[in-house]
Amino acid sequence: MNRFISLERSQQVLQRIRSSAFATAYERDKHRMVLSDDAGNEQVYFRLPIVLPPPGANTPEEEIQVNYVIVLIQSGNCAMGYFENGVNLYHKVFRSYMVRKKQGKSQIKYLKTKGKSRAGSRVRLGETVEFFENINERLQEYFEEHEVHRIAISCSKTLIPYLFNSKVPTPFDKHDPRIFKIPKHIHTPIYEVMLDANRYLMKGELIYEEMQQAVVDKLLGEEIDFSDDVDEFYY
Prior knowledge:
Helices cover 30% and strands 27% of the residues. The chain is α+β, with helices and mostly antiparallel strands. The longest helix is centred in the middle third of the chain and has 27 residues, at 119-145.
């Protein structure tokens, strides 16, 4: 089961976790806490809103500014932006001719099965190279002008090598601890889809089995009014 909760409620849940008897572990790549019982059995997963710092941060949450980039990449489409505490300050959308129209397959996938073909393929390959160079150039601008604390990314495994092996390098490597893979299906990346992804990342998420409902109710607080939770974030 999944329950999405507001940033304010997430802060309350985090405080209750800190004062509870649960053993906790933090998974950095998923930006979530794992709550276990005395026997070490995992009970609940709590994905933190992207603007909440990891557990153990010395600075109070209300005094921390979290800067992050969102990068959404699919074949021939990219939406990306720079955010400060949830507010989008800059964004860019890139499109490229990377898909073979008849087959609906990207040129990259086609080459893996059929090898190089004719002029159309060379055009698509050229646009693929330029596509990732443009992405990395914009990322470099964000990182040069701002301190970036988190990198939220959605990109298929097929395209990851092209991102990191571009002639224009990314301002981070694939093992950067700031990277956070967005755990959500992303539609064709456009500006509105990026904003929807940001709204998702600004929510906390409790993931649990039905038998752990009482634990979750306790974390949420028995007397809490849930009217400000946003139901459209159920997937």
